[in-house]
Design brief:
- The chain is an alpha/beta fold.
- The protein folds into six domains: 99 residues, GIY-YIG endonuclease (3-Layer(aba) Sandwich), CATH 3.40.1440.60; 70 residues, Arc Repressor Mutant, subunit A; 179 residues, 3-Layer(aba) Sandwich (Rossmann fold), CATH 3.40.50.300; 184 residues, Rossmann fold, CATH 3.40.50.300; 58 residues, no CATH class; 92 residues, Alpha-Beta Plaits, CATH 3.30.70.600.
- 32% of the residues lie in helices and 24% in strands.
- It is built from 22 helices and 30 strands.
- The strands form seven sheets. The chain has a seven-stranded parallel sheet, sandwiched between helices.
- A hairpin with a 4-residue loop joins strand 19 and strand 20.
- Helix 7 crosses helix 8, helix 18 runs parallel beside helix 19 and helix 19 runs antiparallel to helix 20.
- The chain is globular.
- Bound molecules: adenosine-5'-diphosphate and zinc ion (ZN).
- Adenosine-5'-diphosphate binds next to helix 8.
């Protein structure tokens, strides 16, 4: 028999399937990892097909060995492999690598076998004891321990000495066998809170499990009981003998969250996230593959969990940008989830309080069902949102970062013994330009997105069309000279607050304070336990945490993401404000949110204030439609990176010409095509150029394939080329 093998070497010239002879001595299946001769060396590879004969003309080599005693890649994943490599233009081996724990390659992580001791078969505790001398204290100790059940030899040895164990084994009184010792990630135990689902929740479960649509958007405000609905659905699915995948944004994978799953489903849950050691990750993955665990809980990559017979896939906080992988291999989690849903005849749930525009549009077109939860489960009101006009602050002589209203509210909160969270909205390293007096933001005349300041050449640029603008020396609207490039750090806010409230205890949470493993959870639990009065942080403090004593949330520079050079800006800002507000007053205490902005009249804030997602959606989707932005178009960026600027430029020009001629043949499929330097034109000493196109949604997959063909046909010596679809980050 012949095996078709993809070798584990990631370069474009080896990215094909090679035929090998299967020797009689090996029992091999599709999905196995094998060792094969390749060139003058041996390398690892994956069997993706087995067939009778070959049309290969030159002599074939034999597979040398099988690498694992299980089949790591399921048939379903082989189908997914073909689809992803075709549609996302990925190397086959790069896709395969997504399906297995990284350290499995090259045999860098293995199952750990350890000696496990039990009473020998047919030997009772009393009988064994009667055969020992009275002074054999340690051996008696071992037996007494084993009378309660088996134990690892290492544990017994530590307590009673290894000689006691081996003496018992020699006498045939105990049995020692090699067992797999699983490295289990530590998850804080949490008692399972048994709740009776509300009628609204039960109806949601029924709709998800037995409703008309296999895919549903679960649209419910924070605290509306979505997680309980997930738990109930998963419970049903596993009672029916099927498996489940629960995806959450990496940053929401808190011990609390995992504790809830462990409490309900115990050992049936395996967790997969980046905080695990390689050994833990491997063992959790293997428990899933072997069927010992049937629920995979994890971040984005858990969508590839090695489980058969999937009954439900849940994507919580579906709007979160972490579900789109930004690095090679690029993929969109919900697309993979949809493939697995269809393959398994499973259910798919997308949960959010602020669905992405894409998802909500699909839902309103009937492509998926919508289940709406309008109320918080314990009847707490949504917090009151107050908007503070920062331009007015300046006019009143306050040039600081914190408004008088916010400072007053922090003071009141401190006095009442409650906690505050101050959120600094800051993204990326690009900055926009804003007039400190009237709030005017410099925008592109053609694209209606804010311009980004480029320090290198002191220009403002549009990241969509590339058009440069001279930095104005005064505000074009009001003539004010003090224009500024927005950007403040958390450190400065902490300093200001501390000076203002000397006795308050503050903690700061940002990239700098959370570098160490576990520090993220430590900071949050310290805050939750009341060890600080005020938490100041970036993005990281936004998500999925339940802080019962927080009654005040301050959002600084809410416009920062609004005028970020990205068409998603408004959407992101709405999501952020809503999520952040969800942190205030969750328990029995009512909360307030104070939102500081230079554009208090922006529609985003009025919708956020009223908690009116639908109103926001209608307005925003309309803007996207008139301005030709996604979901009405697809933005495709071909990024060219090279150490040689000449090379990058030459390659970009060559591909641009080909794209342009394709555009001429199919003008209806394009809104625009431009070639230019990337917004950040040099990163890590490499020059970056790009071709940016906006595709209409007509025959989009076909156009994409054509673009991939153009890119793949190019000789890419000394350069790398990446194709990104709707990139989240346009640096
Ligand atoms: P969401 O995921 O929408 O934010 P959760 O499922 O976490 O909401 O629910 C919020 C809080 O309400 C949790 O503490 C949860 O245990 C509790 N809760 C949810 N459903 C019920 C219920 N039916 N009865 C009592 N408490 C509930
Ligand atoms: Zn102005």
């Amino acid at each position: 028999m012949i095996a078709r093998v993809i070798v584990d070497i990631s370069t474009s010239d080896v990215d094909k399937v090679f035929d090998y002879i299967i020797p009689e001595s090996l029992d091999l299946h599709v999905g196995d990892r094998v060792k094969v001769p390749f060139g003058r060396q041996k390398t690892e590879g994956f069997i993706v097909d087995i067939k009778e004969s070959t049309d290969c003309s030159h002599p074939m080599k034999e597979i040398s060995a099988k690498l694992d005693d299980f089949t790591p890649v399921l048939p379903e994943m082989i189908d997914l492999l073909w689809k992803m490599s075709r549609e996302n233009n990925l190397r086959l081996v790069d896709v395969l690598r997504l399906f297995i724990p990284a350290m499995m390659r090259g045999g860098r992580v293995r199952e750990v076998k350890r000696q496990f001791v039990t009473l020998a078969e047919g030997v009772s505790y009393e009988e064994a004891i009667s055969k020992l001398k009275a002074n054999a204290v340690n051996q008696r100790g071992v037996l007494s321990r084993l009378s309660e059940g088996g134990e690892w030899a290492a544990v017994l040895g530590e307590e009673f000495g290894f000689s006691a164990v081996s003496a018992l084994a020699e006498k045939g009184l105990v049995k020692v066998e090699e067992l797999t010792k699983r490295r289990r990630p530590h998850v804080g135990a949490m008692p399972d809170k048994v709740v009776t689902l509300s009628d609204e929740q039960q109806a949601a479960v029924d709709e998800i499990m037995r409703g008309k649509k296999d895919t549903n958007l679960l649209f419910g405000v924070t605290g509306s009981g979505k997680t309980e609905i997930y738990l109930a659905c998963i419970g049903e699915v596993i009672s029916a003998g099927k498996t489940a995948i629960m995806l959450v944004p990496e940053i929401s994978l808190t011990p609390q969250m995992m504790g809830r799953f462990r409490a309900r489903f115990g050992d049936k849950v395996a967790v997969l996230h980046s905080g695990l050691s390689d050994g833990e990750r491997y063992d959790e993955w293997l428990r899933l593959l072997r069927g010992d665990a049937v629920i995979a809980v994890g971040a984005r990559s858990a969508v590839f969990a090695p489980i058969k017979n999937v009954g439900i896939i849940i994507i919580d906080e579906e709007h979160d940008s972490s579900y789109v992988s930004e690095n090679n291999p690029r993929y969109v989690t919900s697309e993979v989830a949809e493939f697995r849903r269809a393959y398994n005849g499973a259910k798919l749930v997308l949960g959010s309080a602020t669905p992405s525009l894409d998802t909500f549009k699909s839902a309103s077109e009937g492509k998926m069902g919508v289940i709406t939860l309008k109320h918080r489960i314990n009847g707490t009101k949504m917090p009151k949102i107050e908007i503070v006009d920062m331009c007015a602050e300046i006019r009143n002589g306050n040039n600081g970062i914190l408004s008088a209203r916010l400072l007053e509210a922090i003071g009141v909160t401190l006095e009442s013994g409650n906690q505050s969270m101050i959120f600094l909205n800051r993204r990326g390293f690009a900055s926009f330009m804003i007039c400190r007096k009237c709030g005017k933001v410099m925008k592109c005349d053609d694209c209606d997105v804010s311009l980004t300041w480029h320090k290198q050449d002191n220009l403002l640029k549009c990241h969509y069309c590339g058009r440069p603008y001279i930095v104005p020396d005064r505000c074009p609207d009001c003539g004010e000279k003090e224009m500024r490039f927005g950007r403040v750090g958390t450190e400065r806010i902490v300093e200001e607050l501390q000076a203002r409230f000397p006795s308050a205890v503050l903690i700061r949470m940002d990239k700098d304070t959370t570098r160490k493993k576990g520090s993220y959870d430590e900071i949050l639990s310290a805050f939750r336990m009341g060890e600080a009065d005020i938490l100041v942080g970036t993005q990281m403090i936004v998500k999925g945490h339940d802080f019962p004593n927080v009654t005040l949330v301050g959002i600084l520079d809410a416009d920062m993401s609004l005028y970020y050079e990205d068409y998603h800006s408004a959407e992101r800002t709405y999501q952020l404000v809503t999520q952040m507000s969800g942190r205030a007053g969750r328990a029995d205490k009512e909360g307030i949110v104070i939102l500081q902005t230079y554009s208090p009249r922006h529609y985003i804030f009025s919708f956020a204030k009223e908690n009116d997602y639908l109103g926001f959606y209608r307005k925003e989707i309309n803007i996207r439609e008139v301005t030709n932005f996604p979901p009405f178009t697809k933005i495709v960026r071909v990024l060219v990176v090279s150490e040689s600027e000449e090379r990058a430029l030459e390659l970009t020009k060559s591909m641009l010409a080909k794209v342009r001629s394709y555009q001429k043949e199919h003008p209806e499929r394009f809104v625009s095509v431009t070639g230019m330097k990337s917004p950040v034109k040099r990163i890590e000493n490499k020059y970056r150029y790009q071709i940016l196109m906006r595709l209409t949604r007509k025959e989009e997959q076909e156009t994409l394939t054509a673009v991939y063909d153009i890119v793949n046909a190019e000789e890419k010596k000394n350069a790398s080329v990446f194709v990104e679809i709707n990139p989240q980050n346009m640096n």
